[in-house]
Write a structure and sequence with these properties.
about 180 residues, Serine Threonine Protein Phosphatase 5, Tetratricopeptide repeat, 9 helices, mainly alpha
Length: about 180
């Protein structure tokens, strides 16, 4: 059965990448049921996270939110910090696109901190960059600079660019 579930997941992913979202939703739902029937909580949570993304892209924001919250809850029970960070980051994207920019900002920051905890520097960088872009859109220039600086630090970014970004942050007391 596990091989069948894995093969079905591969097919669901292929459908998603091909832009066949309705078929991908159906396939991911079947995969989630298969992993749940096997008692594989980690795989079920991972597929719920994927399904949340596909639901959202398919114009089903409430189903997306439900799937992502299910994934987050399962990852928390499993102690899977990376999974939690991914689900929270996906919830942040959903919130941002649904107009809840304050909630999105809070979740991007939370996801970035979790990625930092587990040493996922690439994901931490991407999340801080998304947070910075959101803060720029909200007119929060200094916070955006600080978030971008933290992202660069995670990535091991250019010392010269980081030094330049530090100037306004130091002037207003956000950095020493």
């Amino acid at each position: 059965m596990n091989l069948d579930a894995n093969a079905l997941r591969d097919e669901a992913t292929r459908l998603y990448k091909a832009g066949q979202l309705e078929q991908a939703v159906t396939a991911f739902e079947q995969v989630r049921e298969a992993y749940a029937a096997q008692g594989s909580a980690a795989q079920t949570a991972s597929v719920s996270n994927d399904l949340g993304v596909v639901y959202f892209l398919n114009g089903k924001p409430q189903q997306a939110r439900d799937a992502l919250n299910d994934a987050l809850s399962a990852f928390e029970k499993l102690g899977d910090v990376t999974g939690q960070a991914k689900a929270i980051g996906n919830l942040a994207q959903l919130m941002n696109r649904s107009g809840d920019t304050a909630g999105a900002e809070m979740n991007y920051a939370r996801a970035a901190e979790l990625f930092h905890q587990v040493g996922e520097s690439g994901m931490e960088y991407d999340t801080f960059r998304a947070l910075s872009q959101l803060q720029l859109q909200r007119g929060r220039w200094l916070e955006a600079l600080a978030a971008y600086d933290r992202g660069l630090a995670a990535k091991g970014g250019s010392r010269l660019l980081r030094a330049f970004l530090q100037i306004p942050l130091k002037l207003v007391g956000l950095r020493r």
